[in-house]
Specification:
This protein has helices at about 20-25, 50-60, 100-110, 120-130, 130-140, 155-170, 190-200, 230-240, 250-260, 265-270, 285-300, 320-325, 330-340, and strands at about 10, 85-90, 115-120, 145, 175-180, 205-210, 245, 250, 275-280, 305-310. With about 350 residues, the protein is α/β, with parallel strands linked by helices.
Length: about 350
């Protein structure tokens, strides 16, 4: 991002009214900064879950990298590899490295035109430019990486399926990820089937791969978000603002402001900010407010912005009925990321 607030001090997100053009949105379709240097070699596969290393090798082949193969014997035939499909879909829980692998595909594939973005960024591009203009801009691209493919909005899913179909017909290769909830017996195993069913017109174009494992973000944490008292919060903001650009807003004000800013502009909303400050966090009970906050958390996580917060711990920000509802995957992903950012 462009550093629009390079000086140290305190800023207020609610004072910002970011604007983003279609051209800027297209130019921003690259891996998040934390994955600038992601490679297959730096992916830390967990030996306890062989599917991680197996998937990595499959994706290396998909990206055009030759994985080591055993030489056939004198009288044996070399194993014939199945033809590759134009798309791969990575199915797995939170924090097993799917985004790292997706970024590794992006960096490894020798392509002139390639794009990397979240599902919401692509749908926002369609919203900003119109469907036909988006197709015209992306047509002929070599690779499209889609992180966090969402299946909960039938309209958006239909638009994306149609868009991907047109791009595949023009020679574009696809790579997508989605999440399955952690520790949900049986539930996660159906995510790949859900994905293929919802994009039925494109299902034959995707090869699905399941990645098992535990959330790497929680391996060294206790699973609880760090929270400050009001006095501790004020002291932390004062200390950090002496050397960094720190935002300081009440949680209520931020939630209300997110309703006035399109999700495609959330990244610009935190442009130049080094630390996010949220005062008096409370539990969200309105679904629309909660989903907007999830989208905001995703952008903050992409930028790896530490969060300083007071009020209730951020791992309790979503009401129990939300965690048991249709958007369960989104809320659990956001909690995982919030815990990590409060410990940054």
């Amino acid at each position: 991002m462009t550093d629009s607030t390079a000086h140290a001090g305190t800023v207020h997100l609610i004072d910002r009214q970011p604007q983003v053009t279609g051209a800027e949105m297209l130019a921003s379709l690259v891996p998040p900064p934390q994955f600038d240097n992601a490679t297959f070699e730096t992916y830390r596969a967990d030996d306890a879950y062989p599917s991680q290393e197996e998937t990595k090798q499959i994706l290396q082949r998909f990206s055009g990298q030759s994985a080591p193969t055993k030489r056939a014997g004198l009288f044996s035939r070399a194993k014939k590899e199945a033809p590759q499909k134009p798309g791969v879909y990575l199915d797995g829980g939170f924090g097993v490295g799917k985004t790292h692998l997706l970024a590794s595909i992006y960096h490894a594939m020798p392509a002139r035109r390639k794009y990397f973005g979240s599902f919401i960024e692509y749908t926002a591009l369609v919203g900003a430019l119109g469907y036909k203009n988006t197709v015209d801009l992306l047509r002929g691209s070599d690779l499209l990486c889609i992180d966090e493919f969402e299946l909960d909005d039938p309209g958006d899913t239909m638009v994306m399926t149609r868009l991907l179909g047109e791009l595949v017909n023009s020679g574009t290769r696809l790579a997508a990820t989605s999440n399955t909830p952690p520790n949900a017996l049986g539930e996660g195993r159906f995510a790949a089937q859900d994905f293929l069913r919802e994009i039925h017109a494109m299902s034959d174009s995707f090869e699905t791969h399941r990645i098992d494992g535990v959330d790497f973000r929680q391996r060294s944490l206790d699973g609880l978000a760090k929270v400050h008292t009001s006095d501790e919060y004020a002291a932390a903001i004062a200390r950090l603002s002496g050397e960094k650009t720190v935002s300081d807003d009440s949680f209520d004000d931020v939630v209300r402001h997110l309703a006035r800013v399109h999700p495609s502009r959330y990244l610009r909303l935190i442009d130049g900010v080094d630390v996010l400050g949220l005062r008096d966090v409370h539990q969200l009970t309105d679904q629309s407010e909660a989903l907007r906050f999830v989208a905001f958390v995703d952008r903050a996580y992409d930028e790896q912005l530490p969060i300083v917060a007071s009020g209730i711990p951020l791992h309790e920000v979503f009401a129990d009925e939300m965690l048991g509802g249709g958007y369960r995957k989104k809320y659990l992903r956001a909690i995982s990321r919030l815990v990590a950012l409060t410990h940054s």
